[in-house]
Every structure is written in structure tokens, then in C-alpha cells.
């Protein structure tokens, strides 16, 4: 005897003004997403940010001292990063680069 499949998705219903729907639809289209996919991705991203903002980082006193000591050290040059920052962006033309 087979068991009925359990649904793993849960519906979410909202009432929004027409202007909000139009803006969401426009943004979804720009991203190549459906309205549902766009709203879901945006809501999950906002939820993750809210959760991350509320998290505390706990360190032992020794680890905290090591962390503070690393922050206090002078910055070190990273050659690969310096090279990357010297490169022109792909959208920059010779004319735009000369003005900078």
C-alpha cells in the first residue's frame, strides 16, 4: 500500500496595491523570472539579511584579543588585487579611460 505524497511547498497569499504588482512584475521581467520566483527570492534574501543582522559572534577572550590584533595590523598589499584594480572595466572605452 502506497502512502500519499506529502507536499513540501506551502502557499503564501498577499494583497498588494496594483502599483506594487506592476513594479514587481517589471522587476521580475527584467530578471527573467516569474512574479512568484521574484517575490520568493526577494523575500528569502530579506529574511536571510534580517537573521544575519540579529546574530551575535561570540569569541573567547583570547580569540577576541587575536581578532582585535589582526584588525590593528597595517593593511598588506595583495598583488593580485592591485593588478585587478589596475585593469579597465570591460565597458570602459579608450575615450572614457582618458577622462578618468
Main attributes?
100 residues; Ribbon_hlx_hlx; DNA-binding
Describe the structure.
This is DUF1778 domain-containing protein. It holds the Pfam family TacA1. Belongs to the TacA antitoxin family. The protein starts with 17 loop residues before the first helix and ends with a helix. It has one domain (18-99). It has helices spanning 18-31, 35-54, 61-72, 79-86, 94-99. By secondary structure, the chain is mainly α. The longest helix is centred in the middle third of the chain and has 20 residues, at 35-54.
Summarize the structure.
This protein has 100 residues and is mainly alpha-helical. 60% of the residues lie in helices and 0% in strands.
What amount of the residues lies in strands? under 5%
Helical fraction: 55-70%
Low-confidence stretches: none
The total number of structural domains is 1
Order of helices and strands: HHHHH
Structural class category: mainly alpha
Calculate the mean pLDDT score and round it: 89
Global geometry: flat
Number of helices: 5
Output the radius of gyration.
Answer: 24 Å
Q: Could you describe the largest sheet, including whether it forms a barrel? A: none
Termini separation (Å)?
Answer: 73 Å
Count of DSSP strands: 0
Protein name: DUF1778 domain-containing protein
Family: Belongs to the TacA antitoxin family.
Pfam family, one: TacA1
Keywords: DNA-binding, Repressor, Toxin-antitoxin system, Transcription, Transcription regulation
Amino acid at each position: 500500500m502506497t502512502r500519499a505524497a506529502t507536499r513540501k511547498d506551502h502557499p503564501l497569499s498577499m494583497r498588494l496595491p496594483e502599483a506594487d504588482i506592476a513594479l514587481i512584475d517589471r522587476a521580475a521581467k527584467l530578471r527573467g523570472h516569474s512574479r512568484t520566483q521574484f517575490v520568493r527570492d526577494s523575500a528569502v534574501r530579506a529574511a536571510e539579511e534580517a537573521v544575519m543582522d540579529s546574530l551575535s559572534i561570540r569569541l573567547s577572550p583570547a580569540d577576541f584579543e587575536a581578532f582585535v590584533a589582526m584588525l590593528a595590523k597595517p593593511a598588506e598589499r595583495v598583488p593580485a588585487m592591485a593588478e585587478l584594480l589596475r585593469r579597465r572595466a570591460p565597458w570602459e572605452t579608450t575615450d572614457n579611460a582618458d577622462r578618468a
